[in-house]
Amino acid sequence: MEPVMFVNNEAWYDNIQLLDFMSDTARYFRLGTMMSKQSVQRRLESLEGMNFAEFSYQIFQAYDFLHLYQKHGCLLQIGGSDQWGNIVGGIDLIHK
């Protein structure tokens, strides 16, 4: 078994321009799919609501999984139930 590795996603986001990220990666995410996630629905129905940074986090977590898959051969991502949609988003992004 391979040893556990800890990485900081700042290492790959430091070299990415926002507009490039939006046109190269975010274009694969459909608003309807993102809005339909249970975690998003719960937040939108709550008193706090959800800001854009929180909403777009699912794209960044999906990209993290893609990067880890491509650069380190990562095949498994573990997260809480509120992360499930983001993890599936990463798997979908890997297949695109």
Q: Round the mean pLDDT to the nearest integer and report it.
A: 92
Number of helices: 6
Q: Note the beta-strand portion.
A: under 5%
Distance between the termini: 28 Å
Largest sheet: none
Shape: globular
Residue windows where pLDDT falls under 50 for at least 5 positions: none
Provide the helix percentage.
55-70%
Give the beta-strand count: 0
In a nutshell, what does this entry contain?
By secondary structure, the chain is mainly alpha-helical. It has helices at 10-13, 18-24, 31-36, 38-45, 52-72, 84-94.
Can you give a write-up of this model?
The chain is an all-alpha fold and 96 residues long. It contains 6 helices and no strands. It has helices at 10-13, 18-24, 31-36, 38-45, 52-72, 84-94. The longest helix is centred in the middle third of the chain and has 21 residues, at 52-72. The mean pLDDT is 92.
How are the SSEs placed, and which strands pair?
Blueprint: H1 10-13, H2 18-24, H3 31-36, H4 38-45, H5 52-72, H6 84-94
Helix pairs in contact: 5-6
Keywords:
96 residues, 6 helices
